[in-house]
Amino acid sequence: MYIPQASDLPQKTRSILVSEIFGNTVQGEGILIGKPTVFVRTGGCDYRCVNCDSLYAVLPQYRSEWNPMTAEAIFAEVQRLAKYTPLLVTLSGGNPAIQPLESLIDMGHAAGYTFALETQGSIAQPWFAKLDYLTLSPKPPGMIGTQPTKWERLDLCVSYARGTQEDRGPQTSLKIVIFDEEDYSYAKYVASRYPGIQMCLQVGNHTPPHVAQQVDLSGVLNRLDWLIARVHKDQWHNVTILPQLHVLLWGNQRGV
Amino acid sequence: MYIPQASDLPQKTRSILVSEIFGNTVQGEGILIGKPTVFVRTGGCDYRCVNCDSLYAVLPQYRSEWNPMTAEAIFAEVQRLAKYTPLLVTLSGGNPAIQPLESLIDMGHAAGYTFALETQGSIAQPWFAKLDYLTLSPKPPGMIGTQPTKWERLDLCVSYARGTQEDRGPQTSLKIVIFDEEDYSYAKYVASRYPGIQMCLQVGNHTPPHVAQQVDLSGVLNRLDWLIARVHKDQWHNVTILPQLHVLLWGNQRGV
What we know:
- The structure is a homodimer.
- By secondary structure, chain A is α/β, with parallel strands linked by helices.
- Helix content of chain A is 26%, strand content 21%.
- Chain A has a 9-stranded mixed sheet.
- Chains A, B: Its cofactor is [4Fe-4S] cluster; Mg(2+); S-adenosyl-L-methionine.
């Protein structure tokens, strides 16, 4: 007997693998820093970044903790956490671009919610055009080992984000996590490749949960200080330089 | 013999009282947080806020430190600090709305620079229409003693910021500094009074230079934690909640 697989179903009705749904909190990074939001963190990722701060949503050994949920069930939980007042929903991961999120976005929009998605840009989806905000954070070579950025895929993400006749497309930004000079050079290259897209530089946390219990706060702030000076040295003025607010506030705590 | 007074001259040629010009640094607060900028801090203020972090640009006893400068001289210094690459110039104070800044803005625009101005909104100027960004930060009653907000003046600031046929007007936001529940209530009132304007809540620093040498960082972060919870309790979702990045990074240090 043939047992239907998830991949056999039309994409809109396939279930979404969810690692966690939490909030209401504030977005801690990027151009939406400080905005109240509920996070939907999907499970599964095509990358294995050295300094990943959410390996529990990435590594297969956590798969049993990820719930296959319908868009309806996810949206019901989002509404409960938002106390039924429309807000910004942040789709994160893992890599949320793997999941069939289109119907969740449609459902939320109909109720007045807005959607931001964060992805490394290695998987492009036509439904990116439906988002309100898209953050593309391609990873510097040092973060993903020998795996180089697949530029044609990032190009495709940018292309889908331009929108369609029906969907005007999200406000798109690039976010590069920076630990050192090599990462910084990569960010400069990305900026030169996509000159029209808003760029955000984010200082990395070298003490994520799998490395240390306690975040090295002064180390993170020192790196921010260095990064600001580095950017000034190049007279790179049309960029935004930010820390992760949640790391400053809550360290490595999960679910905030 | 009649000696001409500054106030006799046409506004465009009057000199500007400058407390300090510094940068390149990053904007530490509000909707432009993280953006590289040069600050022009003018001297003189119509307010005496309890927790003012730049009394050296406010109190008359510092007046001898303020330089009367022409727009040309200020812009030359801005260009030097920006290494002759256009960037965001932040006009701050004191209350910069007291000063004749119009020709400085015109001059900078002609060279590709953009301008943000920060003011409490107690003095309105038609040239606000020329700005690229305007941050209005009316002060909660606890911060200015018994002096209540002059709403008709804030209304006029908002009105000028709508622009004219020649100038499309700045991106305007409201920023309220919050220490306690009373300040928070004031912010809620301001938001209800100006529903169309982006609102930013900023946690106050109870350890500014004239109170303490060292900033009470954990106190500031605890207040941020409280403020986020407070906003969530009200399901206030269309607001931005931020700390002062420069306080986290550099404490009470001046000129950064």
